Amino acid sequence: MKKKDFVTQDLLSKIYQISEPGPRKLPPERQLAQEYGVSRFTIRQAVEKLASIGVVRIVQGSGIWINEQARNNPMVYNSITEKRFDQIRFRMISLHKKRPNRDEQQIFGLTDESFIWQFCRLRFVDDVAVQIEVSSMPVRDFTDLNQQVIERSLQQYVLSKGYRISHLLTTYRAVSVSREQAALLGCKKGSPAMHINNRGILEGGQVYEISDIIDINYTCTYVIPHNRENLTFRQGGG
């Protein structure tokens, strides 16, 4: 693990250990650098990462303030959501309409006479291709989906239609890159990757998008509150 990643994880762990209410600050960069035996630049990188995911606020002349709300909630960030939008771009590979199969009918609540959009796009981070994303959306709700939308933000597009996004349901599975995927991503066939399946869900429960993503540079950190009832169930005690 790189030094900046270790410092980020350790600071995050310490922030979640704080139980006292009220505003709190991290120690100054110079002190943190001494404690971790790293440069101030490494500390600054770690702090900027925490700031980018909303855990801390950097206030010029005042210090590094911990976001109290972030401390009280489970939080997830990954190698995509921690990136600024100006570091990310998309290139559409394909877009077409098709009839939904039985699973797609079930997910979107469609009849077999309906149509869905299916599209493929590459996601670049800092101009390096890292993801292939194959997605579907119901034509009924998104009649004007086009290349310009696909190469920008789908979530902004959905919000612009007046819909309110509730959450994502996400599944992860380790896979190897196929020959076709390797050609798009510029890597070797058989390279390790993460297969990510997403369902985007609106308030009210309607699914607005399903996507299958192959990511060759995926990392994720998340916080899971202890669930005593779940532990008892898994131990066979209830």
Descriptors for this entry?
238 residues, alpha+beta, six-stranded antiparallel β-sheet
Structure description:
The protein has 238 residues and is α+β, with helices and mostly antiparallel strands. It has nine helices and eleven strands. It has helices at residues 3-17, 29-36, 40-52, 68-71, 102-108, 147-150, 154-160, 179-185, 228-234, and strands at residues 25-26, 56-59, 63-66, 76-78, 88-98, 116-125, 128-138, 165-176, 192-202, 207-215, 220-222. The protein has a six-stranded antiparallel beta sheet. It has a three-stranded antiparallel beta sheet with strand order 1-3-2. A two-stranded antiparallel sheet has the order 4-11. The two termini are 39 Å apart. The mean pLDDT is 89.
Q: What's the pLDDT, averaged over the residues?
A: 89
Order of helical and strand elements: HEHHEEHEEHEEHHEHEEEH
Helix percent band: 25-40%
Low-confidence blocks of residues: none
**Number of helical regions:** 9
Q: How many beta-strand segments? A: 11
| Major sheet attributes | 6 strands, antiparallel
Strand percentage lies at 25-35%
- Computed Rg: 21 Å
- How widely separated are the two ends? 39 Å
